[in-house]
UniProtKB/TrEMBL annotation:
Residues 33-47 have a biased composition (Basic and acidic residues). It comes from Spirodela intermedia (Intermediate duckweed). Residues 66-202 form the Acyl-ACP thioesterase N-terminal hotdog domain. This is Acyl-[acyl-carrier-protein] hydrolase. Coiled coil: none annotated.
Amino acid sequence: MLRSVAPTRSLAVGPPPQRRLLPAGTRSSGGVAEERHRGVCDRRRRRRPEETLAQRLRLGKLEPDGLSYKESFIVRCYEVGVNKTATVETIANLLQEVGCNHAQSVGFSTDGFATTTTMRLLRLIWVTARMHIEIYKYPAWGDVVEIETWCQEEGKIGTRRDWIIKDYSTGEVIGRATSKWVMMNQDTRRLQRVSDDVREEYLIFCPRTPRLAFPEEDSDSLKKIPKLEDPALSSRLGLVPRRADLDMNQHVNNVTYIGWVLESIPQEIIDTHELQTITLDYRRECQHDDAVDSLTSLEFGDLDLIRRPSLLTHPKMESRHRRCHCHKTAASSSTS
């Protein structure tokens, strides 16, 4: 979804919040359920490794219950666009960063995206299957944002990670996001079901009751993305992944697709609107030797101008029939 651009107000920077964990020996009265909860908390404390230098320097900590993680970030000059506000790619990168830092804070791997001990032994990795981001106000250069994240089970084949983005100085919610992750074998590149061993490793750090960044029943985050049927109004053909677009999972990083989607939107739309909502479905990974076509068509509905981009990916020197699609309609887009 694109909306008319409104002036951006700078945000004041305040001191970092004070947080502390309850002492390990703290006890309270209660029944069997409380004893079980206390046992889980003790297991979390025992499994947390000693903080690294990077963790001590970050402006981020686990919440006292150990079930979510908050971190603050200053918007830097190279993270903003021509209007001096953060780009949507910046927001997506911060979401990815705070998710990885959350995983490291509970003892998961520092050499991959939140891989557990069992996953490393079996050469398994997490890959993004779906991402939905809503931005209500873009932070400006020098503003401070606070992002809270948590993960939870999502069926038998994946996990879910949610985020809440706030203006640090006012506490105002300026964005929300949710995502689905699935497990892939690093060697065969095939998806794999989440085993009970892996599930047991991360579920102790997840909320015991569902907690959703988008609790609304009619949330756009739940809507399917329709296929692109109309001829493309505009396009950018032959986009080639740079070396810097590849991540630790040996494929194009999920944030890169956002830039590809925006490449084919006409400049007059970019100049007069800003992206408010985007949904991406990742259906096939792209490698360094793939080329990407970004296609955009128009839809008109009610009073809103709706953009629908599509990405067509085809390996170089091979038939263009091998391709993946990116569809964006209303407030959403899908890529793979």
